[in-house]
Fold:
Amino acid sequence: MPNGAHYILSIDQGTTSTRALLFDQSGSPMRVRQKELRQIYPQDGWVEHDAEEIWEATLDVCRGLLTAGTHVENIAAIGITNQRETTVLWERATGKPLHNAIVWQDRRTAELCAKLKAEGKESAVQAKTGLLLDPYFSGTKLAWLLDNVPNARVRAEKGELCFGTIDSWLIYKLTGGKVHATDATNASRTLLFNIGTQAWDDEILGWLGIPRALLPEVKDCCADFGLTEKSLFGAEVRVAGVAGDQQAATVGQACFEPGLMKSTYGTGCFAVLNTGERQVASANRLLTTVAYRLGGKTTYALEGSIFMAGAIVQWLRDEMRLISSSAESEALAADADPNSSVVLVPAFTGLGAPYWDPHARAALFGMTRDTGAAEIVRAAVESVSFQTRDLMEAMTADMKAAGLESPQALRVDGGMVANNWFMQNLTDILGRPVERPAITETTALGAAYLAGMQVGFYGTPQDVARHWQCERRFEPEMVEAERTARYGRWGQAVGRVLTRQAVL
Ligand SMILES: Nc1ncnc2c1ncn2[C@@H]1O[C@H](COP(=O)(O)OP(=O)(O)O)[C@@H](O)[C@H]1O
Ligand SMILES: O=P(O)(O)OC[C@H](O)CO
Structure:
């Protein structure tokens, strides 16, 4: 670490934008640069990003911060956090991508997943990787690239190509092609990584026809990921911390103890529960994943992923035109008839955890002659609370089966948590306290903490946890009978849109 360095530079490469932030020693964000990312939809259900565009935007936002008064010598280290599962294939010698990156949302490998399921491989995949046979994860996307890019498999076998999630791609580019590495959290989302042994799994690689020579080295989240090429920023800077965005948010929320849980409400919602050293297998179709790996020690988590959270509010604004800004949803929901029993099941692209029903479609139930915009907005926002309760129920059941305590409170972040009506409703539907931190830039902060812990800029996880401050704690106010009645109506409504048997 350069003497007297004041900041950690955190790169947050997300689905819709690329951001760079500077954090000081107290964990406060000082400055931010952001660039939107082009979404490419070549066919129905396909989603791609231009990997070169991601790299150029990353360079641009980092340079933007460094030319705005902060000298590169002032940077102690770089942390990287990223949209997970998104898959890049590039030429080892030139760094040239062979295809657009296939984004986590892309469904093109649904058939391959169904075939593997029909062959009875899902339980082995789940036991080894903690994941399900769903197109969401990188493994089948990489298999698709090897099958569809001319000569790719032959070249991959010769070691001429590199596979990586976005973190690997950025590490490779930042180090001028010297380092091909990832961290254990990103590896745990590929479907190729055995989270028990912390090694790439030869059997799964065989099923998908993926040569080992393609794969990055898997490191701890705090590790030496190499020095940036001098020409990029005028001096070399160490890349010292890496984690997938939901895991980084878990670190940023200081969920370092088993039983601590965070939920991020951006476009979608991702809830992550720290289960400590225990690799809790889910009987409720949640994911078992790596929360973080520090000093060679893996901490595991249960994760629930919901595809639609803030995106439902965007739908109210852009398609239904019931509101003119996301923020307006708060006043309208508060205005709704409190006895309204309108329920929206937001299965616009199917339902994620714990249902995993890609064919379910959205529906509104329970409307009466006096139902208006306010009741529909309320139902839309409340559907995010109900979905979180579904995840909480599934997590509680899995934890109980493992003989572990279920989470007592929930730490939240992401754009939607600015909505106080949503916060109170979430608290009421969960029947558990919800805590909103003072710093809600938790994803970028988590990557900064990881890099900073590696180079001695921040102390231990315990020191970092002392920085976490609650801005507002919400306590349940709804009476139990109402909570039960409302959640019961949600369960019935979901039952009516599912195309197959629910697990709950
Ligand atoms: N006051 C609000 N009430 C409800 N939803 C909101 C509010 N403010 C922002 N949002 C929603 O939050 C989302 C943006 O959150 P953000 O964390 O920036 O998402 P992402 O990182 O996925 O792009 C949008 O979908 C937006 O509709
Ligand atoms: O980029 P985000 O914030 O939409 O997060 C994407 C997730 O990592 C997908 O698993």
Notes: The chain has a mean pLDDT of 94.
